[in-house]
Give the backbone structure.
Amino acid sequence: MTKQRLVILGGGESGVGTALLGKEKGFQVFVSDKGTIKKTYKNVLIHNEIEWEEGQHSEDKILNADIVMKSPGIPDKVTLIQLLIAADIPVISEIEFASKYTEANIIGITGSNGKTTTATLTHHLLKQDLSVGLAGNIGDSFAKQILEHDYSNYVLEISSFQLDGVIDFKPNIAVITNVTPDHLDRYNYQFENYVASKFRIAMNQTKDDYLIYDADDEVITNWLKANPVQSKLLPFSLIKPIENGAYLDKENIKITIDNNQIIMPTANLALEGKHNIKNAMAASTVAHLLKIRKQTIRESLENFQGVEHRLEHVLKINKVQYINDSKATNVNATYFALESMDAPTVWIVGGEDKGNDYKELFQFVNEKVKAIICLGVDNEKLMHNFGNMVDVIIETQYMSEAVKIAYKIAETGDNVLLSPACASFDLFENYEDRGRQFKDAVRNL
């Protein structure tokens, strides 16, 4: 019997992980990357005798695939993907491919914001008592972990791009943190297409599965009314009591599942800000569902250190706090950052705009921001939106210069916040590179 041909587009973490799992499962594997494959990944492919190419996509080697796994970074509208779809060759994501080879209990977490923090926090709450891997859009490839560890549980952070490539994938527990306009450039600027993408996380769920979601998010609640799902609903809310799910009652999080209630004080949560109470609610609901002890949940919430590049306190210099929120690649993430500022703030913003509407930030900019530093190739939209709101608005294309300017402007008790509200690709490799450059520049002051 001839082997099925698995073609992988993109030789990054998910691509190479899928290649290893595919080879182990008896596929004939070919990896193709239009860019350059990192040396570490190349070595893995060579060592495992997996055929690969870089700098091109050879159509003759790709269009004869039985199945194609594409990197989430490749849009559906590129010609090669359109040719594959026209030829009825399934184009799937790593999540879809890998999930077929594990019997594990899967917790899938998506949302426009908060998914990395919620996934990392959920993993942190579960790992004391359970065998659990953390994968998806974060950490080591899901496929590779199935091959090497096959944990009994996985927490997967899943982007809308990864969900676009699922067919049968079904998490036992799905979490939707929130849905706000993001990546609209990939969804024909139709917000409803993007919302539909996020809800693919629940499309295969049955009545034995759970959907945990933010009941204060109108986009989510309206979508659920119009498009009911099969799963058991466990909403969470900061503003109203919830019978089955989680809510904030004064200073306590109350979580009820099948009449079994636990209460968590929020006073000692390691993470600050209202949005982090929501992240804590979502993660604790998963933990309570999986019968983690109340004491373990409480201790884990109190000692969780947070995620790099997400409201990360870098240093205090001359009584000015420097905060790295480089992971804020959309307006809503920056909304949470500005909302949690409790002092006059010098705000570093800008980058590659994905069709942003800055209106929701106006109240915070008027209240809290004393100066704005625009760090992007094209800052015209920022100047137009915020020019009249602050006394000082300055443009630069260098992180080191942005931080030096902030240092000159900031006074005792102020914050300097990098929260770009935009993608990083105009001046940086990625948001991590942007965040690291910010931290280096602060340390060099």
Summary: The mean pLDDT is 93. The chain has three domains: 5-92, 96-303, 312-443. The domain at 312-443 is CATH 3.90.190.20 (Protein-Tyrosine Phosphatase; Chain A). Residues 274-289 form the longest helix (16 residues).
